Amino acid sequence: MHTQLFEELVMLHNRVCLALGDPKRLVILYILNGGAHSVNELALLLEMPQPTVSHHLKILRERSIVKTQRDGTTVYYSLADIRVIQALDLLREVLHDTVQRQAELAAFTAVDAERQDADDEGSEGQS
């Protein structure tokens, strides 16, 4: 594998994938997609303790996925780059399509099994 590509993928994993590895952080990003919020506002919206929200924001901030802006004593968090949401939306579409294909396959398999059972019963009656 090309060394530069491998290094970029390692960096992507360490900086982005690990940061997105917790569903709570994904929810935080989607909330921030609607606009900047303080830790306390996020804690209320998420119904989570403020220290827990702070911990998740720290991880996102350290990886430059969110940015901060101070207004007096209050720190507001916002998305550093909207493309993170676009990437998440694309992954959600892939997941949706995959689950839908699996459901269609399962339904087809069930119908096929029912037909096979009916064929077997019909052939038993003819014996």
What does this structure look like?
By secondary structure, the chain is mainly α. It has 2 domains: 3-81, Winged helix-like DNA-binding domain superfamily/Winged helix DNA-binding domain (Arc Repressor Mutant, subunit A), CATH 1.10.10; 82-127. The protein is built from 5 helices and 3 strands, in the order ααβααββα. Strands 1-3-2 form a 3-stranded antiparallel β-sheet. The termini are far apart.
CATH topology of the largest domain: Arc Repressor Mutant, subunit A
> What is the terminal separation in angstroms?
62 Å
Which structural class matches the secondary elements?
A: mainly alpha
Please state roughly what percent of the residues sit in beta strands, choosing from under 5%, 5-15%, 15-25%, 25-35%, 35-45% or over 45%.
Answer: 5-15%
* CATH level 4 superfamily of the largest domain: Winged helix-like DNA-binding domain superfamily/Winged helix DNA-binding domain
CATH class of the largest domain: Mainly Alpha
Spatial arrangement of strands, main beta sheet: 1-3-2
Low-confidence stretches: none
Q: Please give the radius of gyration in angstroms.
A: 24 Å
Q: What is the helix content?
A: over 70%
Query: What's the story with the biggest beta sheet?
Result: 3 strands, antiparallel
Mean pLDDT: 91
Q: State the shape.
A: elongated
